[in-house]
Write a structure and sequence with these properties.
By secondary structure, the protein is α/β, with parallel strands linked by helices. The chain has eleven helices and nine strands. Helices cover about 35% and strands about 15% of the residues. About 50% of the residues are buried.
Length: about 280
């Protein structure tokens, strides 16, 4: 049965060398990588994960294994055998599972402020953990907005975006909306976010992937968290490296938060530098 399609963004399609497969976060889209596209000439392939952006593939089929198999299908459709895989936030968890399920399709992996277990309060219900980590980012999914401008203003008040005026941000947030005025809504539903987040935090696929880690893998961690706060999502990098000995490195990126580690010139340059460390373009 035909279940829809995945929308795929691509930059520099004629570039030589291994493409980079870019995997966005839990409520994001391929446009989260527009800043990275400005900092490299490598071929970049960035899908909207199912249930996000303009992808029409059923959001009823969720979980990291499903998303990772979707990534293999994206590479097949683009005629790509192997790629450097870069994942941000939930996309980093997807990237780790993809490398485990399809290691022959992966050169190496860069996890960007995600992909490794988060330090959650002991005994917290997995559903509560979604709101604990994402806060207003999750709550907005049930909101409606009268215009694109109103949605942009919502994000201007977010601590991670205060004072940031950027045409790429304008494009990113406009693309995030579905429906029609005056009842625009975020393209991702809370049910989709919740299902994927629970699998991210409690599922078997990520646990096995991180234990095996079959492809060279590095972590980039932001200095600040989802709301620009301290502590960040990953406050103790030496402990992470000890707990995951197969991880090649764990590096802190100063002066960025969970969003701007990819969605800013400074963060994008750090990501590109990390990918190039092992011989990428």
């Amino acid at each position: 049965m035909q279940e829809g399609t995945l929308r795929v963004g691509e930059w520099h399609p004629d570039a030589e060398g291994a493409p980079w497969l870019l995997v966005h976060g839990v409520t994001a889209s391929h446009l989260a990588w527009a800043w990275v596209a400005r900092e490299t000439d490598a071929r970049l392939i960035a899908p909207d994960l199912r249930g996000r952006g303009r992808s029409t593939a059923s959001s009823r089929r969720t979980g990291l294994a499903q998303h990772s198999d979707d990534l293999a299908a994206v590479l097949d459709a683009r005629g790509v055998d192997r790629a450097v895989v870069v994942g941000h936030s939930m996309g980093a968890f997807v990237s780790a599972v993809f490398a485990d399920r399809h290691p022959d399709r992966v050169e190496r992996v860069v996890l960007v402020d995600g992909g490794l277990p988060l330090d959650l309060p002991v005994g917290m219900d997995p559903r509560e953990a979604v709101r604990y980590v994402l806060g207003p980012t999750a709550a907005r999914l049930d909101m409606r907005f009268e215009s694109v401008a109103a949605y942009r203003d919502f994000w201007r008040a977010h601590p991670a975006f205060v004072g940031r005026e950027d045409a790429l941000l304008d494009d990113y947030f406009a693309y995030d909306l579905a429906g029609v005025e005056p009842a625009l809504r975020p393209a991702t539903t809370f049910a989709t976010l919740e299902a994927d987040s629970i699998d991210q935090n409690t599922g078997d696929a990520i646990a096995g992937a991180l234990e095996r880690m079959p492809r060279p893998t590095r972590l980039l961690a932001a200095e600040r968290g989802v709301r620009g706060e301290d502590p960040p999502l990953y406050p103790d990098l030496p402990s992470i490296k000890t707990s995951h000995p197969r991880l090649r490195s764990a590096t802190r990126v100063e002066s960025v938060d969970h969003y701007s580690i990819v969605m800013s010139p400074e963060g994008a340059r750090a990501v590109v530098e990390e990918v190039r460390r092992d011989g990428g373009q």
